[in-house]
Amino acid sequence: ANAPSSNFLRAIVENDIATGKHKRPGLPSVITRFPPEPNGYLHLGHAKSICVNFGLARDYAGRCHLRFDDTNPEKEEQEYVDTIMDSVKWLGFSWEQDGEAWLHYASDYFDKLYEMAEYLIKTGKAYVDSQSAEEMAKNRGNFSTLGTNSPFRNRPAEESLQLFRDMKAGKYKDGEHILRAKISEDAMSSPNMNMRDPALYRIRHAHHHRTGDKWCIYPMYDYTHPISDAIENITHSICTLEFQDHRPFYDWLVDTLAEGGFFQRPVPRQYEFARLNTTYVVTSKRKLRQLVEEGIVSGWDDPRMPTLVGLRRRGFTPESIQLFCERSGVSKADGWIDMGNLEIALRDDLDPKAPRGIAVLRPLKLIVDNFPEGESVECAAPVHPHHPEWGTRSFPFSKELWIEEEDFMEVPTKGYFRFTPPVDDKPGSRVRLKYGFVAECTGYDKDENGKATAVHVNYFPDSKSGTPGADNYKVKGTITWVSAANALQAEVRLYDRLFTDPHPDAGGKDFKAALNPKALETITAYLEPGLAKANAEDRFQFERHGYFVADRVDSQPGKPVFNRITTLKDSWGG
Ligand code: ATP
Ligand code: MG
Ligand code: MG
Asked: Which segments constitute the Glutamyl/glutaminyl-tRNA synthetase class Ib catalytic domain (predicted)?
């Protein structure tokens, strides 16, 4: 079968299951979570985290929670909650299991978080600091200097408690006080900056998208996250490498609160893996927003965006994104994954399942001079070359056809086997019009600049593909075509990478300097008439040209608009 390959996270989970490390009555041995902050659209990097977390739950009979980490009231909105839920489902995962929705919001824990903060104050493990933000930053020190204790560090617990309650009651302005942890007496000289009396709560007189104006103090991410994990009985809390230095605080917090009777043991454990960095994209929310707000792209779902809504609109399948994430592995060291791998995954996914179609993207008229005017002959082609059971599609052959411009050359180069005109006493070339007839070039029309405007041929009526006569014609070239009178004229969008630089924002570079001016070309193409029936999001392989999808926003019944997802072969890097 399609067994997922092993990686260090799977090894940890398997070992924990074997040793019964997280065994608790009535709970699965593996509970993970995907914890987005609802402050933007999900992108390819988030897909990686979704695949890792939901994938572990799926593979080890566990479950994965979707948890909105909504502790930053100013930046968060319901719109983002909705799109994140849509994207997780679209990607093929679900937080609904065993008749329950494992859907949580950190804001649902605000009361509990507050109660635990009071406990930490009462037990001397947290205090209210009244220094200014500047003093605090200065006294924290840096990697080469030790921190200095705050003058408020040893204020009596009762005083801190009263101040904290007054903070909650709205008696102070933003920034006047802050609640900090006191992990140990000498924590301010810890080599780990995250252990130097980290902030637990700050004052923010701000409206929250779910709790409204109930709160004017909000818990910090580093305080909220471990507690949310513990409340939800998470076993493996998986995050990216930059949180490695936060792990000692995570462990201290959940252990301290378990000691206080707030949670059952075993407590959750944090594990870090390398984030997914993909070439040719930027994923910083600030930069993506800039692309949208400056009109460089048409929106968050522009098919050139690395957002999941953008990748979906471009035509990438959920399966191809899962395959890409699976193949990119789980590593403990940062690195780059080539964008070409997503395109390969898309081809691998669609080649066996996408119906075929014919499109002429750069049309040139072909006139079959010996074919009767006004008549036509039906030609048949398989829906898919490896699925005869899917049957055939048919389309007419008639006097005037569209072929690709590149399928005619006035003066052929060596090895060119498509249409070329007669020269002196040498006849023009013979080419098979795929699924139709063999035809011989008899001449061409050109405009005042010498550019070919129409190619003339005579066809051989007994050469039709699939008939016994076909074998009598040995030709070296085969080309695709559509009947001019019957073709579906459609808008086709040819997409390319948004950036020409594989690392558009590395080392503080101006990422907009690397924008690819050719990332979108909109053309009018001629398609096989049956494609008029394509529904939004139907995907096809157009022979020679690659994989295409009927745009989910702009396609109308009978009038699809197609996006090229990717070409048939990698055209980048040789
Ligand atoms: P920001 O910090 O700008 O808000 P973020 O990318 O950290 O953005 P979150 O909503 O916090 O956004 O991310 C949700 C989860 O997705 C986190 O667990 C985070 O570690 C994970 N994640 C984000 N980007 C990547 C990535 N490139 N590779 C793997 N996991 C990622
Ligand atoms: Mg984040
Ligand atoms: Mg982040």
From this structure: 30-347
- Give the start-end residues of each E strand in 428-487: 430-433, 438-446, 452-459, 477-479, 482-483
CA-CA distance, 519 to 513, in Å (whole number)?
A: 14
Do 368 and 459 lie in a common domain? yes
Reduce the DSSP state of residue 169 to 3 states and report it: coil
In a domain, 314, yes or no: no
- The enclosing domain of 494 has a CATH number of 2.40.240.10
ipTM of this complex prediction, to 2 decimal places? 0.96
Q: Which helix (H) or strand (E) element contains residue 377?
A: strand 376-382
State the CATH number of the domain containing residue 80. Answer: 3.40.50.620
Please tell me if the CB atom of residue 240 comes closer than 6 angstroms to any atom of ligand 1.
Answer: yes
Residues 59-86: b if buried by 16+ CB within 10 A, e if exposed: ebebbbbbbbbbbbbeebeeebbebbbe
396 plus 432 within the same structural domain = yes
Ligand 3 centre distance from Cα of residue 211 (Å): 23
Q: Which atom of ligand 1 is nearest to the CA of 240?
A: 20
Co-location of 562 and 494 in the same domain = yes
Residues 526 and 492 sit within 8 Å (Cβ to Cβ): no
- Closest ligand 1 atom to residue 48 Cα is 29
Q: Is 357 in the pocket of ligand 1 (CB under 6 A)?
A: no
Q: What is the per-residue pLDDT for 572?
A: 46
Report the nearest atom of ligand 1 relative to the CA of 275. Answer: 28
Ligand 1 in reach of 465 Cβ (< 6 A) = no
- One domain for residues 97 and 225: yes
- Percentage of the chain lying above the pLDDT 90 cut: 96
Residue 22 CB contacts under 8 Å (≥ 6 apart), including other chains:
16, 29, 30, 31, 235, 266
35 ligand 1 Cβ < 6 A: yes
Q: What CA–CA distance (Å, rounded) separates 553 from 555?
A: 6
Residue 572 lies in a domain: no
* 225 shares a domain with 105: yes
Ligand 1 test: best mutation among 32, 49, 270, most atoms within 8 Å of CB?
A: 49
Pocket of ligand 1 contains residue 287 by CB under 6 Å: no
Are both 100 and 166 inside the same structural domain? no
240 is in an annotated binding site: yes
- Name which residue sits closest to atom 1 of ligand 1, judged by CA: 285
User: Which residue owns the Cα nearest ligand 1 atom 14?
Assistant: 36
Which residues fall within 8 angstroms of residue 102, CB to CB, at 6 or more apart? 63, 64, 65, 66, 95, 96, 232
229 and 100, same structural domain?
yes
Distance CA 461, CA 483 (A): 16
Confidence of residue 564 (pLDDT cuts 50, 70, 90): very high
Cis peptide before 28, with omega less than 30 degrees from 0?
A: no
Tens digit of each residue's pLDDT (9 = 90 or more) over 33-76? 999 999 999 999 999 999 999 999 999 999 999 999 999 998 87
Residue 45 is assigned to a ligand binding site: yes
Residue numbers of the domain that contains 30: 8-109+221-276
Tokens representing residue 260 in the block: 């206080």
- Please give the model's pTM, rounded to 2 decimal places: 0.95
Which residue shows structure tokens 């939901």? 54
The alpha carbon of 29 and the centre of ligand 3 are apart by a number of angstroms equal to 28
- Count of domains observed in the chain: 4
